[in-house]
User: Which sequence fits this backbone?
């Protein structure tokens, strides 16, 4: 079921949503794990990472700070950046 | 009006109570606005804080400040105190950190900076720089400077004084510090603001997402508008890269009349901006959409104009320009208000005879060259044969040669590089290393001399091969490099096309190689000797993301191109090491009391 931006989220739901966005970007060609590197393994360039982040911001209804973006390398890092914002907004349900 | 120093322009602008700088800050959802009166006060505070660190007129201060507001105030504060800022680009991420630190160390050491100002997060990563740059006394966090309240002592500043050092991200060599005086900048601002843009003082309004460590953002949108008291709204570069629509949204909301970007920015908007993101926007106030800083593709600009015409974008707003760090910013603008003009020339004659002969119709062999307009008044641009070292004979219209410049915007040379400075000039002209030609007083730019691919006496521009190869599905557009090389066999020039691809399957990669050869042969009539598909992130790029052709050729010649992995993995360890070194250096500093000062 589709979740809307305002609802609260848990870790699994965040990762699942993230995988869905990434699968579209990589055309389902790569198996995704939390340790998968966006640039090194998924073949997404730095502009592509920005594109993914923008989609996630829309999906979750939040803004990821530029400072947090500098630290993002793996799928898991992106999930954590999203979760940090959700916690700050009081929309974390675990 | 006589020329003024940047320091004087800050004082003069202070009387303006309506116009100034606005900084879009996504994190806090705020847009703080400083009138030029407020800018005068904020820059005096930063100037005083830098003086309190012991910096005096003529000393250099390196700046690594990703936040636009911090950068602008620290930069202008230093300039008012006569301290020479040396802007350095911030690390793009934790990847490729070792290369970043090497470059930064080089710039800090070469400029002789006594102090480096950065933010607390980046400071942690600069241990190597702190340890190895002998001249660097301290790295100061900007958070500390903001709190300093020492009074500012004004300095007498002349037009001949050095205003700042603009380090260029050369594609072949280590960065060189272009010396720009207040006189250079005042002359260039007059040229592009008054003659090029015909700016109305205090009325025209700029919008910029451009990085401020780059000439187009810094001179074009911090200094130019300051001299003419125009309001500018700054968007963080990352916000634009994340959401290109943000640029258009701010232009619409602020009724922006002037904005610039390199070719890729316009292409990114065409590719990424969705119609629903710009529904309801109005770009009709945007009267100059400037394009420069990298090779311009007329097709990209026309696609941009088509896409955004429905929300009021006027295709005549597009303005192509030409310039380089060595000429402050720009030396020529095409006429404002006519849109992008280009010349379809015969690719075969261009290659074989170095002549740009117009081609009727839209044939396969046409090469599209963009018009960058005439030289600004008081400046001179001419084209000479590449081997005409003394600059004795200007080439006639439509003959391709090296573009050379002279005039008040042109630098007197590179900081502490007498040999490179001598090599950069020929008979009083700055050698640009670019190829181009004139038609009726207007300049057309073809490409870089060093990157020309010469096969059987014919010249081919790598951009043209790359453009063709980028059309193949599976090849990452914008991540293609073409070059010629005689190595390793040393018999004749071989043509190589290397590109990044997300495709990993061996057979699929073979198919891509075949497709690239075919599309280049059809489009340009040239047979490619070797096609090299690579993983994403392997091709070397500069800080601003420009492809490094010479570096790629070197990697190819030494066989390292195939063994080179994406820089990510190796750098994780480097990050840990850097943080450890930083902490170590602070401990040493505390124990030995800064023993690095001689």
Assistant:
């Amino acid at each position: 079921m589709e979740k809307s931006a305002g609802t609260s989220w848990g870790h699994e739901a965040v990762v699942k949503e993230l995988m869905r966005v990434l699968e579209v970007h990589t055309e389902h060609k790569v198996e995704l794990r939390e340790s998968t590197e966006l640039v090194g393994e998924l073949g997404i360039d730095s502009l592509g990472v920005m594109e993914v982040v923008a989609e996630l911001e829309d999906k979750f209804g939040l803004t990821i700070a530029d400072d947090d973006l500098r630290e993002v390398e793996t799928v898991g890092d992106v999930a954590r950046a999203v979760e940090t914002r959700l916690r700050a907004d009081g929309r974390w349900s675990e | 009006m006589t020329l003024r120093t940047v320091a004087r322009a800050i004082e003069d602008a202070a009387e303006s109570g309506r116009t100034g700088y606005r900084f879009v800050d996504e994190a806090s959802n705020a847009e703080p606005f400083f009138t030029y009166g407020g800018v005068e006060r904020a820059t005096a505070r930063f100037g005083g804080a830098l003086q309190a660190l012991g910096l005096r007129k003529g000393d250099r201060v390196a700046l690594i400040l990703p936040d636009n507001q911090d950068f602008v105030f620290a930069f202008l504060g230093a300039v008012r105190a006569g301290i020479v800022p040396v802007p350095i680009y911030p690390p793009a991420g934790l990847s490729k950190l070792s290369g970043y630190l090497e470059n930064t160390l080089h710039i800090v050491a070469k400029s002789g900076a006594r102090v480096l100002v950065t933010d607390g997060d980046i400071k942690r990563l600069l241990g190597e720089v702190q340890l190895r740059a002998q001249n660097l006394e301290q790295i100061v966090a900007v958070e500390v400077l903001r709190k300093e309240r020492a009074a500012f002592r004004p300095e007498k500043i002349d037009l001949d004084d050095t205003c700042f050092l603009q380090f260029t991200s050369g594609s072949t060599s280590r960065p060189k510090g272009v010396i720009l005086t207040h006189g250079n900048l005042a002359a260039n601002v007059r040229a592009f603001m008054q003659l090029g843009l015909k700016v109305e003082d205090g009325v025209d309004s700029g919008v910029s997402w451009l990085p401020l460590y780059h000439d187009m953002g810094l001179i074009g949108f911090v200094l130019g508008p300051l001299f003419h008291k125009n309001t500018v709204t700054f968007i963080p570069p990352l916000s634009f890269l994340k959401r290109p629509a943000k640029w258009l949204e701010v232009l619409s909301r602020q009724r922006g009349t002037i904005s610039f970007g390199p070719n890729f920015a316009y292409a990114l908007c065409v590719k990424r901006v969705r119609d629903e993101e710009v529904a309801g926007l109005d770009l009709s106030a945007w009267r100059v959409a400037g394009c420069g800083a990298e090779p311009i593709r007329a097709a990209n600009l026309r696609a941009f104009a088509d896409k955004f015409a429905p929300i009021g974008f006027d295709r005549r707003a597009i303005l192509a320009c030409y310039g380089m760090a060595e000429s402050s910013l720009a030396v020529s603008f095409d006429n404002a208000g006519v849109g992008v003009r280009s010349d379809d020339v015969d690719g075969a004659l261009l290659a074989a005879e170095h002549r740009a002969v117009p081609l009727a119709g839209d044939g396969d062999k046409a090469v599209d060259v963009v018009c960058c307009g005439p030289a600004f008044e008081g400046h001179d641009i001419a084209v000479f044969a590449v081997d005409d070292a003394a600059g004795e004979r200007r080439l006639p219209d439509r003959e391709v040669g090296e573009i050379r410049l002279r005039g008040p915007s042109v630098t007197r040379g590179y900081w502490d590089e007498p040999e490179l400075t001598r090599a950069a000039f020929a008979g009083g002209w700055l050698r640009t290393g670019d190829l181009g030609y004139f038609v009726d007083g207007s300049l057309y730019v073809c490409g870089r001399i060093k990157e020309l691919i010469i096969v059987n006496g014919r010249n081919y521009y790598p951009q043209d091969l790359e453009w063709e190869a980028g059309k193949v599905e599976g090849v990452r557009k914008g991540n293609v490099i073409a070059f010629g090389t005689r190595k390793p066999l040393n018999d004749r020039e071989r043509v190589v096309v290397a590109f990044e691809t997300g495709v990993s399957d061996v057979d699929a990669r073979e198919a891509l190689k075949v497709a690239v050869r075919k599309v280049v042969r059809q489009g340009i009539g040239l047979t490619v000797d070797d096609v090299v598909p690579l993983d994403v992130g392997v091709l070397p790029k500069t800080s601003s993301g420009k492809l490094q052709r010479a570096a790629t050729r070197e990697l190819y010649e030494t066989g390292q191109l195939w063994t080179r992995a994406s820089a990510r993995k190796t750098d994780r360890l480097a990050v840990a090491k850097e943080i450890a070194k930083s902490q170590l250096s602070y401990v040493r500093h505390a124990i030995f009391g800064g023993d690095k000062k001689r």
